[in-house]
Structures are given as structure tokens and as C-alpha cells.
Amino acid sequence: MTILSHRHRFVFIAVPKVASHSIRFALRPHLGPDDEEQVALFVRKRIARPVFDTQEHGHQTAVEVRAAIGTDLWSSYLSFAVVRNPWDRFVSYVAFMMRHHGAFERDPRAAMHRVLANPQNQSPVHYRSQIDFLTDDSGALIVSKICRAERLQHDFDEVCDRLTLPRCTLETRNASVHRPYVDYYDDELRAAVAARYRADIDCFGYRFGD
Prior knowledge:
- It contains nine helices and five strands, in the order E-E-H-E-H-H-E-H-H-H-E-H-H-H.
- The protein has helices at residues 20-27, 62-69, 71-76, 86-97, 103-106, 108-117, 152-163, 187-196, 198-204, and strands spanning 2-5, 10-13, 36-38, 78-83, 145-148.
- A five-stranded mixed beta sheet has the order 3-1-2-4-5.
């Protein structure tokens, strides 16, 4: 779901399981004929750079996109992404990955424990920390604007204002349906997810229950 817009001079970095579809559907009507998307779910589109030809997903990192388009272009465009509470995101990830065989619906807590314990259940794209998509090799954030899923409409309105795009109401797209994320956790799971995504928690200041 990476979007590179030359018409409006922005780059959208799509962190997995963080409102990517909602943002993409809101932006798509404003894209010009030379603007580019990288997406594999529902439709297949590719950003016209050789490095992306074989990537069967739309979740490129900021470093990958910057390298592909060049530092000068990257620096002159507004780059933005959305982040999400890691405990909430992990529930959504497990529900998404197990959506076809009902394991999450039958026993969500057991499913979450299994994902943490078994690398075979850990998608190399969707399981990654959010900061992996947004930082360079030194650990510095290289994205201009960080939006938060918890205040998504407000933050997306700010992006639209900066790009002089009309504000619009974001629609819920491709979302997992589940209870409030705190309901799925026991103390062990809470600590394990905190340890796995400690870098996200520290960088973005999230707490359990936010």
C-alpha cells in the first residue's frame, strides 16, 4: 500500500495492520496519472522501480523507498505513516493471520501464545516492529509525519491540510472485528508482547490500556 504521489509530493509508508487500507482509499481519488502504488491485496500494482518488482506485498520500509527514489526527492516530499498501540496491533495481527481456520475465534488467548512461541506463525512482514518501517540503520526516524491510529481522523486531517487536499471522513477498511484489545490479555501475554515490541513502545510512548 505504499503510495508515491508526484502530483501532491508525498510518500505514504504503509505499516502493516495500521489503517493502510483506510488511508489508501481516501488518497486514491486524488492521485495523478503518474502517481504510483505498491499493493498486492485485492489488486496488484507496482511502484516502477526494479527493487519492488518481486515484492509480493505493499509494505515497503522508508529506507527502501528512499533508496529507490533518491534522497533529494525523498527530502522534498512529505513522507508520513500511521502507528498503533503495539498490544492492539498484535491482536489484530493474530486475528488476521488466523482468519481462515478460526483458531483466533475459538481461543484467542491460546492463538496469541502460539504465535509468540512459534516462528512459523510469524509473518516476516506483518510481525515486524513498526519502527523497522520508519527508521534508518542508525535508528533515527526518517518519516516527516507520524500519525496515530488512536486519533487517526485528526492526524489525517493535518496531513490533508499540509498537502492542500480536501479533508474527508476515513472509512474502516479490511479491519479485524474483535473486542477491545485489553480483553484478550493475561499478564504473561502482556509482558511478552511488551518485550517483543519494546522499541515501538519506547519510541512512540505507548502504554497498555491506551
